Amino acid sequence: MKEPLSLRHDFWQVFATYTFLLIVGIGGVWMALHFLSPSDDVAGTRRGLALAGLVSMVIGFGVASWVRAWIRDDLERSRNEILQTLEAEDSAVPEELGDSVKELRKKVSQLETDKARLSVLLGAMSEAVVMLDGLERILVANPMAEKLLGLTSPYSKRRLGEVTQMKRLTDIVSDVLWRQTATITEVDWPASHNDIRHLWVSVAPITSDDKDPAGVVVVMYDVTRLRRLERVRRDFVANVSHELRTPIATIQSSAETLLMDGMDVGPIGVEFVETIHRQSGRMGQIVEDLLTLSRLEAAGEELAMQNVEILVVAQDVLERFRPVAQKNGVSLEIEVPEDLPPVQAEPRALQQILANLVENGLKYTPEGGQVIIRATRRDSDVVITVEDNGIGISPEHVHRVFERFYRVDTGRSREVGGTGLGLAIAKHLVRRLGGDIVLESQPQKGSKFKFWLPAHEP
């Protein structure tokens, strides 16, 4: 196969030959017509020369046409050979490129499908979802967020503080971006003059591959209706408890009078009166616990915080329950270091917390067991533990024991008594004091109730 440069060289060589023949033919005719004398004898000669020139020109044209046809065929063959060679050498490249294009189209299609699904998912959510970049500019917001925040287009790429008047939310977003720590809180937002909305807000940071902050995701849920229902329930419980307190106290005092006066009501009558007295006392305790829980949930009462010595409060609580412990054959112990700093708490609240936990331990600890109050220092807090070696609690019940009226074993709970509100009250009191409470328990190995309160720093 000839190289393209050689083909061009052959073409110009033949073209020069063709041009030379054409010039010779034309030149011969011109010389014959103009340089010979115009005699009769010469006229034939001139005609002969002209004819010769014409023949030369025709022959030149014929030779040039043949050479041109030969060159065209040769060029066509060369071009075809070059194309075949290129196709043979590069046949693998288009195949690989085709596979890459197919894979790219597949990924683009998958991304479009995922985007459509995400759009449908965000649009169907009852929660408001907003994604912001590191400069607090809005990237994505679902329809619920647009409605809740009052966003109007175009809001994309605009800062959150520019499109909403919820300053508390912008402060939370800025704090999460700065600390790179997720937060969950509740925000009260005046949507209008007479409409206060209660929003549950969760803000989580987004980090890039190089661990740099890339933005945040904000999830908001309007809990206004739930809070209103909760307030109605709380008010109803408080009102009913107040209404029940007087008649229950009257029943209890009447039964107690019958027992003390020694009236002749017979053995069966005495048993009935004792049952009335016992159950009315239990009902009275439930009412008092419900009132206490309602006050704690209302969070209207301010606790008088002060420095409280845990050892003193623990000793008072154990002395209160020591007769019951001796009757049940359960020992009560205290393990509190003498150099333990006091805690920031309200004395009566701390006493009620310990009393409820100790009472719970005594109810579910068999004869020969023990209930121990421990306290240790941990960083800026004091951790207080009420531990028993009783029957314990199964893992599936651990996260529910602080719910009101929740019973792990309803049959046993009826035997040991109680209102089912003691642990719920303890949890609310601990949180009102600025701490938290957890339970660690295993069946047949006992339970550990741990709560921590801020230590007093001198």
From TrEMBL:
Where does the signal sequence lie?
none
Record Pfam families: HATPase_c (PF02518), HisKA (PF00512), PAS_8 (PF13188)
The record, for InterPro entries, names: BphY/WalK/GraS-like, HATPase_C_sf, HATPase_dom, His_kinase_dom, HisK_dim/P_dom, HisK_dim/P_sf, PAS, PAS-like_dom_sf
Q: Which reaction does it catalyse?
A: ATP + protein L-histidine = ADP + protein N-phospho-L-histidine
The membrane-spanning stretches of this chain are 12-36, 48-71
* Keywords from the named record: Kinase, Membrane, Phosphoprotein, Transferase, Transmembrane, Transmembrane helix, Two-component regulatory system
GO terms for biological process, alphabetical:
cellular response to phosphate starvation
For the protein in the UniProt heading, the enzyme class is transferase
SUPFAM superfamilies, per database record = ATPase domain of HSP90 chaperone/DNA topoisomerase II/histidine kinase (SSF55874), Homodimeric domain of signal transducing histidine kinase (SSF47384), PYP-like sensor domain (PAS domain) (SSF55785)
Give the record's GO CC terms.
plasma membrane
CDD domains, alphabetized: HATPase, HisKA, PAS
Molecular function GO terms recorded? phosphoprotein phosphatase activity; phosphorelay sensor kinase activity
This enzyme's EC code(s): 2.7.13.3
- Highest rank taxon of the organism: Bacteria
Where in the numbering of this chain does the Histidine kinase domain appear? 239-457
Q: Which PANTHER family match?
A: PHOSPHATE REGULON SENSOR PROTEIN PHOR
Q: What is this protein called?
A: histidine kinase
Ranked from the top, the taxonomy reads: Bacteria, Deltaproteobacteria, Bradymonadales, Microvenatoraceae, Microvenator
